[in-house]
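[Meeting: bench + compute handoff]

Bench side (C.D.) handed over the final construct sequence. Compute side (W.E.) agreed to return the predicted structure before the next meeting so the bench team could plan truncations. Sequence as handed over:
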Amino acid sequence: MSEITFSNETVQYINMASKYSKANIKDCLVEDDRIIFVVEKGQLGIAIGSKAKNLEKLRTLFKKNIKFVEFDDDKERFIRNLCKPYQINNIIIEGDENSSMVRVRIEVSPRDKSKLIGKGGRNINMIRKLAQRHHPIKDVQIK
């Protein structure tokens, strides 16, 4: 788990998203054409809004794809949230829970595997980054 530092741009994205969605945003990851916001547990519905109106408003405002992910103190549940909407068969956590040597292996159906990895590995890299920022995880792999 690393200390999270935000650029001025990221802070602006968080402030705007908080203002429009009224959700408590814990983290934000900005990549080329998309922004992933991590919201406090129980705030996902508030963040997305009725009929996804907050999501659409933010897409229009930032001119990027927007994804909201719900935070969870439990590593396995947080990884599952990061992997949505794909069907996860199993999550295997290997290593000492009290150290940063924990490895996570995600077992996914063959039809969802390439989608979860993403073009050029962009989805798995996002999952890996966010998992490491919020939990003591060394690596995340897809099996």
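W.E. noted at the follow-up: Residues 8-70 form a domain with the GMP Synthetase; Chain A, domain 3 fold (CATH 3.30.300.20). C.D. will use this when planning the next construct.
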